[in-house]
């Protein structure tokens, strides 16, 4: 691959790499960290492939110096990490556990020392178990506790962290966690999941206020809006897409960027969406202005009409909306089974701006691919499929910018192979391979490709 293959970006566009606390840190009981819902979930038989847990993960908690050196070698402008709430408040409320915050203090200092801007995500799914025991995101109290926790983190790191992300993919927390049950806490509910979605948004808005009160500069949220495509042009499939738009996209985007709740929710959920979890004034909290919206994108989703999986409205979950997802088989798929369709990324971004004219600037907060990596006899990982994925998806972002979308930066998912939730350690997204027996790090070809692309961009855009 030559420099001609590198996608082009405007001057000032930034590049980064992303990770998340539970997926890499390990040290699950170090320095007073309390249990999170993922610690509990992983210990329930049959929940996570091979019974894997995040107890050790990549041991980043003890090896962060080595990982920051890898980031420096990559030449990224910014590193997106997440703060583990149970390190800061082991019981989910009360004063900060200083030893837990010390870790992020050291990490931030080290990043700044090598010229990398820290970008902190406040919630990437590791809710303190004590809060789940009191109802978790189903109850409003968790939103209030989230704002309190945010205040503790920004008070300690706000003098050095400029970019803040409140929530990562609230869709997954609310629906994969409380309706599909494939993520912690493993619930399969209807109204409970819709209440969780709402309280996540309220928590986000309250956290934005806490960040602003502390003088934070750049504040956003990381969503995973879906590019939904009907399987056929049949009116029934088009209506299925309409319902899926409510579930996947409008639940988040409408209150955040259009000051309303989704218009189609009654048709999507019926009485389950009774709105009883909403209070007057919530839309104003949720709609606090943001400096950017983070977009996590991996693949498009093809939608078909389908009968209810559960005919009984009393036990039906919030994802059972007479709609099913099918996987395309006319394109390559990653080891997640996800179709590789880069042009969908451009369509998603241009469509977002068209539908939400007040959308703030976009930052791509995640994009990457899980591949069947092999260590060669000479000890290298020649992950050409991942390189092609990154090249084509970065080109898709570049095309969206050419089409008028204000995209400011891109974080690759992920710096390291890590704990891929219900798939445990069996799916590898990293630019750097982690040997889970020795915890040794090994940069892959994709690491070198991304490094060269960033360097090329700098040369081309530095006057
Ligand atoms: O690993 C996850 C990440 O935690 C959230 N976004 C999607 C990634 C890949 O599945």
Notes on the structure:
It is a single chain. The protein has 463 residues and is α/β, with parallel strands linked by helices. The protein has one domain: Alpha-Beta Barrel (TIM Barrel). Helix content is 40%, strand content 14%. It has helices at 21-24, 37-42, 60-74, 85-88, 98-113, 129-132, 140-157, 170-180, 191-213, 235-257, 265-269, 282-286, 342-355, 384-402, 445-461; strands spanning 14-18, 78-82, 117-123, 163-168, 218-223, 228-230, 292-296, 301-305, 323-326, 362-366, 407-413, 432-434, 441-443. Strands 1-2-3-4-5-7-10-11 form an eight-stranded parallel beta barrel, surrounded by four helices. Helix 7 packs parallel to helix 9 (191-213), helix 8 (170-180) runs antiparallel to helix 9 (191-213) and helix 13 packs parallel to helix 14 (384-402). It is globular, with a radius of gyration of 21 Å. 53% of the residues are buried. The mean pLDDT is 98. The structure holds 5-hydroxymethyl-3,4-dihydroxypiperidine (IFM). Residues 20, 23, 169, 296, 366, 413, 420, 429 line the site of 5-hydroxymethyl-3,4-dihydroxypiperidine.
């Amino acid at each position: 691959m030559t420099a001609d293959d590198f996608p082009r970006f405007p001057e000032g566009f930034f590049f980064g790499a992303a990770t998340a606390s539970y997926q890499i840190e390990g040290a699950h009981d170090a320095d007073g960290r309390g249990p999170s819902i993922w610690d509990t979930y992983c210990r329930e038989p049959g929940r996570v492939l091979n019974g894997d847990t995040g107890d050790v993960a990549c041991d980043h908690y003890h090896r962060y110096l080595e990982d920051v050196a890898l980031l420096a070698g990559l030449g990224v402008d910014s590193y997106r990490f997440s703060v583990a709430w149970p390190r800061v408040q082991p019981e989910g409320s009360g004063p900060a556990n200083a030893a837990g915050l010390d870790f992020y203090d050291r990490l931030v200092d080290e990043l700044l020392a090598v010229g990398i801007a820290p970008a902190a995500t406040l919630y990437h799914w590791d809710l303190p178990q004590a809060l789940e025991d009191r109802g978790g995101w189903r109850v409003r109290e968790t939103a209030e506790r989230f704002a309190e926790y945010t205040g503790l983190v920004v008070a300690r790191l706000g003098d050095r962290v400029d970019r803040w992300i409140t929530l990562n993919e609230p869709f997954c927390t609310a629906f994969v966690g409380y309706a599909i049950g494939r993520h912690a806490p493993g619930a399969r509910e209807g109204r409970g999941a819709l209440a969780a979605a709402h309280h996540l948004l309220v928590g986000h808005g309250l956290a934005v206020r806490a960040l602003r009160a502390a003088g934070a500069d750049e504040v956003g949220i990381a969503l995973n809006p879906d590019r939904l495509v009907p399987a056929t042009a049949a009116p029934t499939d088009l209506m299925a897409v309409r319902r899926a738009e409510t579930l996947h996209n409008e639940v988040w985007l409408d209150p955040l960027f259009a000051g309303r709740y989704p218009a189609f929710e009654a048709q999507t959920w019926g009485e389950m969406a009774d709105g009883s979890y909403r209070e007057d004034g919530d839309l104003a909290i949720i709609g606090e202005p943001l400096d950017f919206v983070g977009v996590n994108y991996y693949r498009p989703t093809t939608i078909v009409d389908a009968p209810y999986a559960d005919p009984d409205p009393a036990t039906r979950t919030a994802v059972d909306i007479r709609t099913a997802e099918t996987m395309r088989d006319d394109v390559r798929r990653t080891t997640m089974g996800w179709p590789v369709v880069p042009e969908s990324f451009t369509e998603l971004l241009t469509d977002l701006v068209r539908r939400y004219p007040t959308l703030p600037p976009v930052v791509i907060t995640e994009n990457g691919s899980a591949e069947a990596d092999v260590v060669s006899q000479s000890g290298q990982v020649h992950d050409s499929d991942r390189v092609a994925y990154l090249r084509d998806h970065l080109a898709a972002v570049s095309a969206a910018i050419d089409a008028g979308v204000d995209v400011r930066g891109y974080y690759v998912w992920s710096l390291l192979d890590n704990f891929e939730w219900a798939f445990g350690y069996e799916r590898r997204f990293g630019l750097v391979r982690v040997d889970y027996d020795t915890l040794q790090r090994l940069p892959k070809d994709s690491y070198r490709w991304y490094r060269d692309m960033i360097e090329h961009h700098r040369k081309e855009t530095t006057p």
